[in-house]
Design brief:
Elements: E1 8-10, E2 13-15, E3 19-21, H1 37-47, E4 54-61, E5 73-74, H2 81-93, E6 97-103, H3 111-114, E7 119-120, E8 137-138, H4 141-161, E9 165-170, H5 175-180, H6 196-199, H7 201-214, E10 220-227, H8 236-248, E11 253-258, H9 275-282, E12 289-291, H10 298-306, E13 312-314, H11 317-321, H12 325-333
Parallel strand pairs: 3-4, 3-13, 4-5, 4-6, 6-9, 7-8, 9-10, 10-11, 11-12, 12-13
Antiparallel strand pairs: 1-2
C-alpha cells in the first residue's frame, strides 16, 4: 500500500488516507452566507467515491465583521447550522471526513462588504503583498474578547452541524495571521508583537475557549502561515517554536501554508513548495503536519511523504479542475 493511501490518526479521529482537499473559496453561498444547493452539490462532487481522506471546507466567517468576500460561507449565527449540516451529510455519505475552517479577515475585510471598519492587531498598513491600502483600527481588549467568543461559538456550531473537527485560519494575511506576524503586530499588551508568546497568545486563548465549549476530544487544527517570505516577517524558526506550543495546547493537526506570501512561495514553484517549512516543523512535533503547495501529481505526493517532508498532502487546484483526480492518483499508486 502506498503511503498516500495509508490511514492516519488526527487526535482520536481515524482518516482513511493521507490525501486532503484544502479550503478553497467557491463564492457559492447566499448573500447572507447561508449554504446553497449549488454549494452542497459542489462538495458532493468533490467527495464522490471517498478517495479524499479529509476535506477541509472553505473558510467560513465567525462574525459579520470578519467576512472576507461576497459569497463567503457564514458560521456566525445558529441559523447557519442547518445548511452546514447538509454539506457535512454530502461529504460523509461519500466516505470522507470533514473539518470546518473558521476565519476572520481582520484588516483584509472591506467596509463595503461587511458594513464595519476593518480591525486588526495594530493600526498599521498591511504589507504590499496584501494589496490593501486601508489602515485598520487596532483591536481593543473588548474587541479581542468578543473575537474569542465568536470563534468558540463558531466551533460549537461546527460540532453541532456534524463536522469532524475545526481548523483555525492563521494564514494568508487573515486576522490571526495579522496577530502572528511582526509586520502587522505592533502591540505592547499581552498580545504584543515582539515575542512568539505574545504573537500566539490570541491563538491560545481561542483554543482554550473552544476546548471549554466543545470538549477536550474534539479535533482542532491550525492553518499556520509559517513564513511571510518578507524581510522582518515571520520566519520558520518562529513557526517551529509556535508549533511546539500549539501541540502542547492540544492542537491535533498543523496545516502549513504562507503568511503574507499568501498561498505561494516567491522563491520556488516546485511541487510541494512549502516543504521546507513542513519538514522543519515535522521534525519538532509529534502531531500530523499537512503540506500543500502546487502538488498536481500523485507520484510527487507519495515521494514527499516517503521523504518525510510531511504526514499528509493537500491537493487543491488539481482537484478543483478535475473531480476524479483523487481516484486516479490513488489507483495509480497501487
Amino acid at each position: 500500500m502506498s503511503l498516500l493511501n495509508s490511514p492516519i490518526q488526527i487526535g482520536r479521529l481515524e482518516i482513511v488516507n493521507r490525501l486532503v482537499m484544502p479550503p478553497m473559496a467557491t463564492a457559492k453561498s447566499q448573500e447572507n452566507g447561508e449554504v446553497t444547493r449549488e454549494l452542497c452539490e459542489y462538495y458532493a462532487e468533490k467527495s464522490r467515491g471517498g478517495h479524499i481522506g479529509l476535506i477541509i471546507t472553505e473558510h467560513s466567517y465567525v462574525s459579520p465583521a470578519g467576512k472576507a468576500s461576497k459569497g463567503q460561507v457564514s458560521i456566525a449565527k445558529d441559523s447557519d447550522i442547518a445548511g452546514l449540516e447538509k454539506v457535512v451529510e454530502m461529504i460523509h455519505q461519500n466516505g470522507s471526513k470533514t473539518f470546518a475552517q473558521l476565519a476572520h479577515a481582520g484588516g483584509l475585510a472591506k467596509k463595503e462588504i461587511t458594513g464595519y471598519e476593518p480591525l486588526s492587531a495594530s493600526a498599521v498598513e498591511l504589507p504590499e503583498t496584501a494589496r490593501s491600502k486601508t489602515i485598520p483600527t487596532e483591536m481593543t481588549e473588548e474587541d479581542i474578547q468578543k473575537l474569542i467568543a465568536d470563534f468558540a461559538a463558531a466551533a460549537l456550531r461546527a460540532k453541532r452541524a456534524g463536522f469532524d473537527g475545526v481548523e483555525l485560519h492563521s494564514a494568508h494575511g487573515y486576522l490571526l495571521n495579522q496577530f502572528y506576524s511582526p509586520l502587522t503586530n505592533r502591540r505592547e499588551d499581552r498580545y504584543h508583537g515582539h515575542s512568539i508568546d505574545g504573537r500566539i497568545r490570541l491563538h491560545l486563548d481561542i483554543l482554550q475557549a473552544i476546548r471549554e465549549i466543545v470538549g477536550e476530544d474534539y479535533p482542532v487544527a491550525i492553518r499556520l502561515g509559517a513564513s511571510d517570505h518578507l524581510a522582518g516577517g515571520t520566519t520558520i524558526e518562529d513557526s517551529v517554536a509556535a508549533a511546539k506550543k500549539f501541540e502542547e495546547a492540544g492542537v491535533c493537526l498543523l496545516d502549513i501554508s504562507g503568511g503574507f506570501s499568501f498561498y505561494t512561495n516567491p522563491y520556488t514553484k516546485e511541487q510541494g513548495y512549502f516543504s521546507d517549512l513542513t519538514e522543519s516543523i515535522k521534525q519538532n512535533v509529534r502531531i500530523p503536519v499537512l503540506l500543500t503547495g502546487g502538488i498536481v501529481d500523485g507520484v510527487v505526493a507519495e515521494r514527499l511523504l516517503r521523504e518525510e517532508k510531511a504526514d499528509m498532502i493537500g491537493v487543491g487546484r488539481a482537484i478543483l479542475k478535475d473531480s476524479d483526480w483523487a481516484k486516479q492518483a490513488i489507483s495509480s499508486l497501487g
